[in-house]
Design goal:
By secondary structure, this protein is α/β, with parallel strands linked by helices. 35% of the residues lie in helices and 15% in strands. Strand 4, helix 5 and strand 5 form a beta-alpha-beta unit. It is globular. The relative contact order is 0.17.
């Protein structure tokens, strides 16, 4: 295992949806000993603290939830991601998934600057492929993949300078996709392994195929891990629970394969709502998954008791 210089960046984004609580996410990861766990694995860790959203003059929108705040966060996170990427492996501690509007587009700017393609692994129950026009709920945490792949309709947001080609995006774990998103996805070459495909053929093959593409292109790989990728029985601290998610072993296998690939260059940890957790169960699991991504082997996993 090659030691990494890891940069923890708190992004207490809580504007992407109506249900509040993700603002507490970054500090829950810290309380669950994320930094200490990564140091124990031999990495250098710098905690850069929590960011704050840039102030904007954009007016509120009748339908879209907290549009000005989400645009402000996007601007802040674009800059933070682009600035951090040359200095190590940034881990963005969320915060709801609207933070990926900024993190992925910022990392894409960095990838363009170093002349390498960016690939994105989206681990989520949802595709988040809505535009501001197509979302029925108005919750902007359902729009980041549409934004960073360059779909139209994001006039209030900063222009995407370096859209991620849809062929460079892989979504694993989908099981709740709205009709408008389904129709839009059908026109793209995004690679999708929904939970039915995983039930039938396992989680290893689609991930291995995608990682082979990243390797062949000498690409950078951004991983965006949503708590609701996991089954709510093992990860209850999320406001968008969808039954039938990844099991504990499936999730750890994904992380272990990502580590083996040595391709991951940035990471989002999103949608943790500590208000809904059970004695820190979900936060600890997300820390354990990050540890697997960063080199902890299956035999080395600690025993935890939640009593």
């Amino acid at each position: 295992m090659t030691p990494q210089n890891i940069l923890l960046i708190g992004a207490p984004v809580d504007s992407g949806k109506d249900r509040k609580g993700c603002i507490m996410g970054p500090d829950a990861y810290r309380t669950a000993r994320l930094a200490e766990t990564l140091v124990e694995l031999g990495h250098s860790v710098s905690d850069l603290g929590n960011l704050t959203a840039e102030e904007t003059t954009i007016p509120d929108h009748d339908h879209l939830v907290a549009l000005p705040q989400t645009v402000g966060w996007t601007r802040t996170l674009q800059k933070a991601a682009k600035d951090a990427a040359p200095n190590g492996l940034p881990i963005f501690l969320g915060g709801d998934h609207s933070l990926a509007l900024g993190t992925v587009s910022g990392i894409a700017d960095h990838a363009a600057a170093v002349g390498r393609p960016l690939f994105v692994l989206w681990l989520d129950a949802h595709s988040d492929f809505h535009t501001p026009q197509s979302t029925a709920s108005g919750n902007l945490h359902g729009t980041p993949t549409a934004y960073f792949t360059g779909r139209d309709g994001f006039d209030a947001f900063p222009p995407v300078k370096n859209p991620v080609p849809t062929a460079n995006v892989c979504m694993i774990g989908l099981r709740s996709v709205d009709p408008a998103e389904h129709a839009a996805l059908a026109t793209t070459d995004i690679e999708i392994a929904d939970m039915r495909a995983i039930d039938e053929g396992g989680i290893r093959a689609p991930l291995a195929d995608f990682l082979a593409k990243v390797e062949a292109a000498n690409g950078l790989l951004h991983v965006s891990l949503d708590v609701d990728f996991l089954d709510p029985d093992i990860a209850p601290a999320v406001g968008t629970t969808v039954p039938g998610g990844a099991t504990l072993r499936e999730a750890h296998l994904v992380m272990e394969m990502l580590h083996d690939s040595q391709r991951v260059t940035s990471l989002d940890l999103v949608e943790l709502n500590p208000f809904m957790d059970e004695r820190g169960k979900t936060a600890s699991l997300m820390v354990d998954l990050t540890a697997s991504l960063m080199g902890r082997r299956v035999f080395d996993r600690p025993t935890r008791a939640f009593v």
